[in-house]
Amino acid sequence: MTRVAVFPGSFDPITNAHLDVARRASGLFDRLIIGVLNNPRKGPLFSIEERVALIERCVTDLGEHVSVDAFDGLTVDFARHHGAGFIVRGLRAVSDFEAELQMALTNRKLAPQVDTTFLMTALEYGFVSSSLAKEVARFGGDIRPMVPPPVAEALAERMATEPRV
Ligand code: PNS
Q: What distance in angstroms lies between residue 39's CA and the mean position of ligand 1's atoms?
């Protein structure tokens, strides 16, 4: 049996915490598709094309069974589109749990055949989030412990051209 999973998210941008989850999931599933939600209404810092390209640069070492794809609409439809029976989400702390439980139960109602699996992020990335990485980068702090090198570079470049809001 082939086990296929999607790992959905905004990934604006991908962080070391996301990458850690992707790495763990890549060892558990035969195919892993990292799904980048096209969410222009959220006002992302990076375009959908930029987010996909950054992730692609960061996951090359995970193997050919790991791919990246953009999606619109429901995560369960994205999972069905790829023939995935699993949704992967990372948990950093108890504070993530409530929202994740709500999402997992909603997704189960929408698609009972798709199961959500949670992976705990490594302890050292428990504090990392895309929004904090953007905030630290905006004020010139060191983001290297939070994001992979291509993202640190892209964030520094973007912040150099963005006004400080
Ligand atoms: O990285 P994020 O922002 O925590 O990811 C949230 C995401 C993209 C997984 C979630 O917002 C999502 O699944 N959006 C797609 C719309 C959807 O399926 N909604 C119903 C399930 S809550």
A: 10
Could you tell which of 6, 37, 72 is best to mutate to test the pocket of ligand 1, judged by most ligand atoms within 8 Å of the CB?
Answer: 37
Question: pLDDT tens across 121-152, in order?
Answer: 999 999 999 999 999 999 999 999 999 999 99
Q: Which atom of ligand 1 is nearest to the CA of 130?
A: 1
Alpha helices, DSSP H only, in 111-145?
Answer: 130-138
What is the amino acid identity at position 21? V
Picking from 100, 115, 94, 29, the residue whose alpha carbon sits closest to that of residue 65 is: 29
Closest Cα to atom 1, ligand 1: which residue?
9
Nearest CA to ligand 1 atom 22: 103
Q: Are 86 and 6 in contact (CB under 8 A)?
A: yes
CA distances (Å), origin 118, targets 46, 96, 107, 143? 26, 11, 14, 26
Digit-coded pLDDT (tens) for 45-59: 999 999 999 999 999
pLDDT digits (tens, 9 = 90+) for 66-109: 999 999 999 999 999 999 999 999 999 888 999 999 999 999 99
Q: How far does Cα 130 stand from its chain's mean position?
A: 9
